[in-house]
Structures are given as C-alpha cells and as structure tokens.
Design brief:
Shape: globular
Helix content: 55-70%
Order of helices and strands: EEHHHHHHHHHHH
Number of strands: 2
Distance between the termini: 41 Å
Strand order of the largest sheet: 1-2
Number of helices: 11
Length: 185
C-alpha cells in the first residue's frame, strides 16, 4: 500500500494544504447540483439544499483538515451561485451580502453556514472532546506524541509536528484570536 490512499472516503497521506486533495469534494458538490434543481426549486428549496447537501458533503474532511482559503472560496462561490440562480446562463444579481446570508435566521440571515467558521468549529471539537475524555487511549497517544493538550496553543513552536497538529495549534492561538475557545467552554 502506497501513500496517499483513501480510507473511509478521506485521503490519507495527502497534503491537506494543497487544493488537489480537495478537488474530489468540489467535484462531488458540483455533481449534486444539476442545473434542473436550481431552475425548478424555489428560493426556500435552494436554501434547504445548500444547508443539507453542500454543507454536509465536506463534513468528514472539515473535521480532520484545515481547509485552504482557495477551497473555502470555491465552495462559497458554488453556494452563492446556486442560491442566486443556478442553471441559468446569464449572470444573476446577489441581492444580499454573503456575510448577511450566513447569519442565523433569528438575526435576519438565511442560516447558511460560513464554510471557514464551520471548519474551525469542527476542528475545535478535538480540544473539547479531549476535555471530556482525557483518559481515552487516543488522548494518551496524542499526549505522548505532542505533550499536554491543555497548552495546545503553546506547543506550536516545539518539536516536529504533523500538519494536522499545526492546524489545531493555529486555531487555538490565544495571541491572535483572543482565547476564543476557553471563553466559551
């Protein structure tokens, strides 16, 4: 068996910082949105399809890998194009800023998840899960490899680490992000 290979639909051994690793996900999203769905669905139907399909397809990847900005932008473009008029040949007008579309319904948005924030939240679940299961085997293995998870943001400069661990450390960087995780937990 050679690297990279697929396991449970996730490419193992590939570089998650390269857009090439994400191309199958982008293609799968595009293939799910055939042109008839956009033309035949109402706005509410398109919103529902964005929430259930486009956001759910990359879920497994999002929970393991930090998504490159280019991929986030591609997925956001697909979402916006589908929302404002998928399948039509002419260019449609976006009536509302995308940041407003991503706001919760209670605040006047459409409740569509912002891909970058969604990715960060799914990666943050690793630290949350560690707090719940500190005695688990997976936590012991990571402690042996990387040190204490309580100081996750401080371990970025230590010994050689995997790309996954470096991404987690950047998410919890207290200096840049103001300790957002510990304030909420």
């Amino acid at each position: 068996m050679a690297l990279p290979f697929k396991y449970l639909g996730v490419t193992i051994g590939g570089n998650p910082k390269r857009v090439v690793l994400w191309n199958p996900i982008i293609e799968k999203i595009k293939s799910r949105l055939s042109s008839w769905k956009g033309r035949m669905l109402s706005m509410a139907g398109r919103i529902c399809l964005i929430k259930s399909v486009i956001t759910a397809l990359p879920l497994f990847y999002f929970s393991f890998f930090k998504t490159p900005k280019a991929v986030c932008n591609q997925i956001r473009k697909i979402q916006a194009k589908f929302l404002w008029g998928w399948g039509s040949e002419d260019r449609k007008i976006a009536w509302v800023k995308w940041s407003k579309v991503c706001c919760p319904v209670e605040v006047g948005g459409l409740g569509i998840k912002d891909i970058k924030c969604f990715n960060d939240a799914l990666l943050a679940k690793w630290k949350w899960r560690y707090r719940l299961m500190e005695k688990g085997l997976w936590a012991k293995v990571l402690n042996a490899r990387y040190g204490n998870w309580r100081n996750l943001e401080a371990t970025l400069t230590h010994r050689r680490q995997s790309a996954w661990w470096q991404d987690l450390c950047r998410i919890f960087d207290k200096v840049k992000l103001g300790n957002w995780f510990d304030r909420r937990c």
